[in-house]
Please model this.
Amino acid sequence: MKSKDLDTLFEEAFDNAQLIPQESVPQDVQLVLYGLYKQATSGKTNIHVQNPQDLINAFKLNAWIQVKHLSIDEAKQNYITIINELLRERNL
Model:
């Protein structure tokens, strides 16, 4: 798959994610998607602790760290796969 094709699919998946009601997605899946999105858009060199006392940011940071071993393309592909699965499950 060409990088441009993957980028286009990733952008489409991100746009389609807005169609999925947030309350219908379990929080653990939301965190996985967050981590994949951050990895896909920032790569693994930009992981910094902002405020470790903030529980929400700690969970987000942990979700990103869990996928830091993935390349940007792998993170994009995983994000696309999860979004497409969520869309199918919800008949969207």
